[in-house]
């Protein structure tokens, strides 16, 4: 008979940090587990067995949200003792042990991930929408010059993500914006602002222009494009996984 418990934790950290800290902390089981799959920074799965639990299956999924990373964990196990006695043992001993161990583990994890996030540079991007079009910007200089991106930039220490988004749009485009909702998050490869390789992510919010005259202060070009024109642009490769969410947004507005 298979027993299971599910745990959901909201961690104030980007996807990469939540995933990496979770992996450093491991799992709260006193025996070794074998990695079955790992897809950084979205999921991992470990199997093992020990104590009263046979065939433990522990899966974790990391979902980006506007408030941080939602970590969805499932612990499944089979009891070594069959039948009614096994069910009784599960209710009185095993389940309580799993709950207590996971609770302590998750509290530690959430605090550690939040602390680690303070040292990781966060990049924010704005998908600015007008009617059925979204504003895209072509990077004017640097290694990624000529590639298309969402206007935005690095969040400064002590600054909120949305304050950074508003500031960057003012600096880069000379417009006031009203952020509307979180759209998605992708890991950024390589080093961002001298941080650890692969530690930063780009978190994109959609919004509307509420004032100002659009001027490309830092980009070589800005363009309002429809959903059908998105795919053909020469995007920064890291941004491509965000395009389905932008298309879906334009379709439903
Ligand atoms: N703004 C933006 N940056 C992106 C996107 N995709 C992507 O990989 N990046 C990367 C490029 C850079 O390594 C980093 C953002 O840095 P940035 O140079 O725009 O930041 P910033 O405006 O704060 O610039 P600065 O202080 O260095 O002048 O994120 C995107 O869609 N928008």
Folded structure, characterized:
This protein has 253 residues and is of the alpha+beta class. The protein has two domains: 2-117, 2-Layer Sandwich (Alpha-D-Glucose-1,6-Bisphosphate, Chain A, domain 4); 123-252, Alpha-Beta Complex (Nucleoside Triphosphate Pyrophosphohydrolase), CATH 3.90.79. The protein is built from five helices and twelve strands. Strands 6, 7, 8, 9, 10, 11 and 12 form a seven-stranded mixed sheet that branches. Strands 1-5-4-3-2 form a five-stranded antiparallel sheet, with helices on one face. The protein is elongated and about 75 Å long. Bound molecules: 8-OXO-2'-deoxyguanosine-5'-triphosphate (8DG). 8-OXO-2'-deoxyguanosine-5'-triphosphate binds at residues 123, 125, 144, 149-150, 152-154, 168, 188, 192, 202, 236, 238-239. 8-OXO-2'-deoxyguanosine-5'-triphosphate binds next to strand 6 and strand 9. InterPro entries: MutT-like, NUDIX_hydrolase-like_dom_sf, NUDIX_hydrolase_dom, START-like_dom_sf. Residues 119-250 form the Nudix hydrolase domain. This is 8-oxo-dGTP diphosphatase.
Task: Identify the notable features of this structure and list them briefly.
253 residues, alpha+beta, Alpha-D-Glucose-1,6-Bisphosphate, Chain A, domain 4, Nucleoside Triphosphate Pyrophosphohydrolase, seven-stranded mixed sheet, five-stranded antiparallel sheet, elongated, binds 8-OXO-2'-deoxyguanosine-5'-triphosphate, DNA repair
């Amino acid at each position: 008979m298979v027993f299971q418990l599910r745990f959901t934790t909201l961690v104030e950290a980007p996807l990469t940090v939540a995933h990496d800290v979770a992996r450093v902390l491991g799992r709260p089981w006193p025996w070794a587990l074998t990695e079955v799959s790992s897809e950084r920074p979205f999921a991992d799965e470990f199997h093992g067995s020990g104590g009263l639990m046979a065939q433990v299956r522990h899966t974790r999924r990391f979902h980006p949200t506007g408030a941080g990373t939602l970590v969805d964990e499932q612990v499944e196990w089979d009891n070594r003792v069959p039948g009614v006695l096994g069910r009784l043992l599960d209710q009185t001993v095993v389940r309580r042990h799993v709950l207590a161990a996971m609770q302590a583990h998750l509290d530690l994890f959430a605090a550690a991930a939040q602390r680690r996030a303070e040292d990781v540079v966060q990049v924010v991007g704005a998908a600015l929408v007008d009617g059925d079009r979204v504003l895209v910007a072509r990077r004017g200089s640097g290694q990624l010059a000529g590639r298309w991106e969402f206007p935005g930039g690095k969040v400064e220490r002590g600054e909120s993500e949305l304050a950074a988004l508003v500031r960057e749009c003012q600096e880069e485009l000379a417009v006031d914006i009203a952020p509307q909702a979180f759209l998605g998050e992708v890991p950024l490869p390589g080093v961002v602002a001298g941080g650890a390789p692969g530690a930063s992510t780009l978190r994109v919010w959609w919004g509307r222009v509420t004032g100002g005259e659009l001027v490309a202060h830092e980009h070589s070009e800005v363009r309002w494009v429809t959903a059908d024109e998105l795919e053909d642009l020469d995007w920064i490769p890291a941004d491509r996984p965000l395009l389905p969410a932008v298309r879906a947004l334009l379709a439903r507005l």
